[in-house]
Amino acid sequence: MPTLLCALFVIQTLKFSHSKALTNVSCIGTEREALLKFKQDLTDPSRRLGSWTSEGCCEWEGIQCNKKTGHVSKLNLRNSCDGLESCSLGGKIHPALNELKFLKYLDLSFNDFVTHQTQKTLTSLHKLEYLNLSFAGYGHISNQLSNLSNLRYLDLSGWMESPSSAKNLRWLSTFSNLKYLDLSYASLVNPKEWLSPITMLSSLEFLILIGCDLEDASASLPVNFSSLRFLDLSQNSMSSSIPPWFQNFSKLEHLDLSDNDLQGIFPTIILENNQWLKFLDVSSNRMAGELLKNSSSCYNLQVLSLRSNKFSGGIFNAHNIALNSGQSNLKTVDVSDNNFNGHLPNQFGNFKDLVFLDLSQNSISGPISATLGQLPSLRILNLSFNNLSGKIPKNIGLLANLEVMDIGNNQLDGILTQIHFANLTNLIVLNMYSNKLVINVGTSWVPPFQIQDILMSSCKVGPKFPNWLRTQKKVLVLDMSNASISDEVPHWLSNVLSSIEELDLSGNMLRGNISRIIGKKMPLLTQIIEDNRSGRNTFTSDIPLQLCHLAKLQYLSLNHNNLSGCIPHCFNKFSRMWENSTLYFRSTGGNRLDGQIPEGLTWLARLQNLNLSQNRLVGKIPLDIGNLEYLESLDLSDNKLSDEIPSSISNLHFLSCLDLSNSNLSIQSSIKLVMRVQTSASINSIQFD
Length: 689
Ligand SMILES: *[C@@H]1O[C@H](CO)[C@@H](O)[C@H](O)[C@H]1NC(C)=O
Ligand SMILES: *[C@@H]1O[C@H](CO)[C@@H](O)[C@H](O)[C@H]1NC(C)=O
Ligand SMILES: *[C@@H]1O[C@H](CO)[C@@H](O)[C@H](O)[C@H]1NC(C)=O
Ligand SMILES: *[C@@H]1O[C@H](CO)[C@@H](O)[C@H](O)[C@H]1NC(C)=O
Ligand SMILES: *[C@@H]1O[C@H](CO)[C@@H](O)[C@H](O)[C@H]1NC(C)=O
Ligand SMILES: *[C@@H]1O[C@H](CO)[C@@H](O)[C@H](O)[C@H]1NC(C)=O
Ligand SMILES: *[C@@H]1O[C@H](CO)[C@@H](O)[C@H](O)[C@H]1NC(C)=O
Ligand SMILES: *[C@@H]1O[C@H](CO)[C@@H](O)[C@H](O)[C@H]1NC(C)=O
Ligand SMILES: *[C@@H]1O[C@H](CO)[C@@H](O)[C@H](O)[C@H]1NC(C)=O
Ligand SMILES: *[C@@H]1O[C@H](CO)[C@@H](O)[C@H](O)[C@H]1NC(C)=O
Ligand SMILES: *[C@@H]1O[C@H](CO)[C@@H](O)[C@H](O)[C@H]1NC(C)=O
Ligand SMILES: *[C@@H]1O[C@H](CO)[C@@H](O)[C@H](O)[C@H]1NC(C)=O
Fold this sequence. Notes:
By secondary structure, the chain is α/β, with parallel strands linked by helices. The protein has nine helices and 47 strands. The chain is globular, with a radius of gyration of 34 Å. 40% of the residues are buried. Bound molecules: 2-acetamido-2-deoxy-beta-D-glucopyranose (12 copies). One 2-acetamido-2-deoxy-beta-D-glucopyranose binds at residues 458, 460, 482, 533-534.
């Protein structure tokens, strides 16, 4: 019965609060006037303050009043119109704002305000507890804040102080209640001037100084940040070791020191002292030490990023209490690009929340444990560039949420069958290149995934062209070079390649008409490598005209194939394609291109490398070859080119390699050429007959 009564009471109160009697408690006249003055000085292109006309100012957009007193208590004009400049308010912040003496909350973030030095815009807002001027404009603010002694949240990130404003932070000293301080992107070079005022803030829990040009944090000051929970000093230039005062933290939950130049041993004691640490990012520094081996307890850690440092030692600590009791909360582990060694853990099952695991570019050895299949949340797995060996456990096929698997560049061997992929329904990136793996799936296998990137270079995929590729409709990157495929290019391949961006099938023994690979349905292709280093692809036919439709091509290499006919003449002055690209048709014992070098080639103005050597090209070098002004290397050697070398060749100011040897080019002109190109400083190799 009492419960019911209580419920009725709540309904009554709610009704009451919606009635007129409360909502128009008041709009205090002087405050309304102050707001109108404030509005007057603003620009408001998207009319966000359109409602600022009626009597009841407490109902205006962004305003909240105290229900009892009617005073304006909250002004929130945050521009939440994601990056759209047209929604931002501009103009001056009018000093009339000082009339809002009962304001507790002021958020002007992501607008474009200006304050003037002489104006005292915020000085009397004594009750203010929350001030957010993050990316709100520029001007003089810090010198006006000293009276706001009730501030608990102060966000001045990205607020541009005028150069004449005081650079030191002594004005902070009055904020004994401050809990949250964000001064990101302010330039705070001198540690004495930022660190000592901040250490006075005895209630501080959040300190964010991203990109503040901090160079040295190790000032010999007694620092007692006993209440700090959140510290972000990323994107600075600190090059010291971790300052000793870090050992005084005991309540840290979030520590971000990434993108500095910190050196020395990372003190394990930080982990031991801060049992509530959830987030640790020290990536992109020069820190060392055997952090993972030595730390024995990190129950609460969810994000661990040590990427790009010099950490060493075992990747896994058999004595780690958290792991052994199966209590890890880790979601993200990125320790790539370090010197870690030792073996992988053999009880992955303890990391049941793990989503992201990147151990790449270390020296980790030994086998992959079958318990890897017990990571039900795993989406990203990168073990590449290590020294892992042995077979890949079948259980890997259980990782139903896996999207990215990169195990390239290890010593793994054995046979992968369709069981290894059985439940990988979400896989979009599969990198297994440079191992000793054999892929052996049935010809009628339909993979459970639709892959985007496949890198299987130097795996044994063949001898048949893999039929399962036929089922894939979203392939962007396909590298099956040196994959022991000895087969005819299937007729369906050009369908699979319809959205391809990078293609490498070199070093196999492919046969057939190259137009099955370079088809006109490949508008996004940026890279084709079909040259035969060790294998013997023997494509027949002319170079297809479709080549001229591959507008984004950056790298084309058709070396050592069996191509014949002419270089397509389909380029014209509208061929704004192949910017910075590299074109190789080199052909030792393979290609037999004949005919002339098309004049149209000189329209490919941003070409960087051109190699047409060892064909049977005849005629002149195009007169306008000098149009290819970004050309860095030009090799036309071993052809039957004749006549003069065009003088425009001396326009090629970036040329560093030039080979015109073994043709019938006029020697007279060669000599002139030497004179000309020698004035071009970048040349470092020239060859003629
Ligand atoms: C609310 O507004 C009405 C008229 O709009 C007025 O009569 C009434 O007195 C106001 N109530 C209060 C509490 O100010
Ligand atoms: C200040 O505003 C920005 C963006 O409007 C927001 O990201 C940030 O969290 C706010 N700061 C605080 C302390 O709430
Ligand atoms: C601080 O407040 C006092 C009293 O209200 C006032 O006299 C003084 O000018 C204020 N200080 C600043 C810097 O505005
Ligand atoms: C550190 O600061 C806190 C909060 O101001 C205080 O309670 C504590 O005694 C200080 N610790 C030492 C050792 O001075
Ligand atoms: C740690 O805090 C104590 C108490 O405030 C202080 O005496 C000591 O100097 C601090 N240590 C460092 C390295 O700053
Ligand atoms: C880790 O422990 C080893 C001894 O096992 C010690 O030599 C080394 O200094 C410790 N490293 C760190 C970073 O604590
Ligand atoms: C895996 O890591 C390597 C080296 O750190 C990196 O080059 C590669 O791009 C990563 N793989 C994926 C799929 O992101
Ligand atoms: C990789 O492991 C093999 C044994 O599996 C070992 O012979 C080799 O030295 C290791 N290479 C590196 C770079 O650690
Ligand atoms: C794997 O997929 C099959 C059906 O495709 C399903 O029955 C099975 O439960 C899945 N196993 C796991 C571990 O997800
Ligand atoms: C081609 O693959 C084999 C293994 O199948 C490997 O030994 C060889 O180094 C690879 N060659 C190239 C050029 O990558
Ligand atoms: C290759 O295919 C193209 C387009 O289907 C065709 O025009 C050409 O004649 C073929 N070349 C050879 C040598 O079969
Ligand atoms: C070509 O190179 C220039 C200079 O490196 C670069 O600015 C431009 O974005 C590049 N263009 C493409 C399409 O990659």
